[in-house]
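Incident review: delayed structure delivery

Summary: a single-chain prediction request sat in the queue longer than the usual turnaround. Root cause was a stuck worker, restarted by the on-call engineer. No data loss occurred. The affected request and its eventual output are reproduced below so the record is complete for anyone auditing the incident later.

Affected input:
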Amino acid sequence: MPKNEAEPAHESVLPVETVLMLDSRSGGLFVDATLGLGGHSEAILDSSAKTRVIGIDQDGEAIAIATRRLKRFGDRVKIVQANFSEIAKVAASAKMGEPDGIIADLGVSSLQFDSGSRGFSFRFDAPLDMRMDAESGGETVAQLFATVKEDDLANLIYRYGEERRSRRIARRIIERRESGDLVKTTFELADLVRRAVPHSPKDKIHPATRTFQALRIAVNHELDVLEQFIPNSVDILKTDGVLAIITFQSLEDRIVKHAFQRLAGGCICPPRMPVCICGAVKRVDILTRKPILPGDAETDKNPRSRSAKLRACRKLVH
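Output delivered after worker restart:
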């Protein structure tokens, strides 16, 4: 199908590995819980004429592009605008049966990252928004800066960005607010962080990268949503169904790894507890003892895939 030149280029991460992990070549119903621009859904639908897909995304602009991209598959695909935390509700409303597989790609889509107006990237001067759903009415980063306490801001930058200079960055942001000059744009924030964080020309990433990541995670409640999404997804899978998740940073990967271990029956009681009291029950088999990583060919073609990790588990008998 020829690409629409007016639409953004999009390279899905680990598409071949995802299709193999989900075994979609055998047909079945699959949920693409983070539809984005439709790359993984397209790969699943192309893998067999017997596949069907429910695509979920909260970004209306992405849905419009994915809908055009997947139009050729007709009624084999159903697209719903929602947050992936609502997967159980969406699947029930679709009335298409229990899914054979679920895929979630947790990366920021090309559409969002390359947008000059959404505030996800400091490559463009834009208002500090960073909401995945720009029509949600939720709090933007600029609105967060207008009300947040300094300690709370420092803590979220440290927790979600693993930024060691979080207190210095938070202090600079609050000082600007107290002077009546609130930080409102991506360029202003990137410059403030660059001045606050010691860095060298040899550093591989921009000094503001971790802070931008932290703020995006905070306003979208990404980690809380992920912790809710994983057990909900296992609940709705049919027996032997596969849940596959692609992460792009250590916080997400740690949550997925530990959630899979708990669902595989791993005890979470304190080490010195003589008897297990956490009620651990084995609900899944982990299919990826170590995460699957992109190969050199993929990372050369799509540099954003370099940090991707694919983990998967298979649901056991109800």
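Verification: Confidence is low (pLDDT under 50) at residues 1-6.
Action items: add queue-age alerting; document worker restart procedure.
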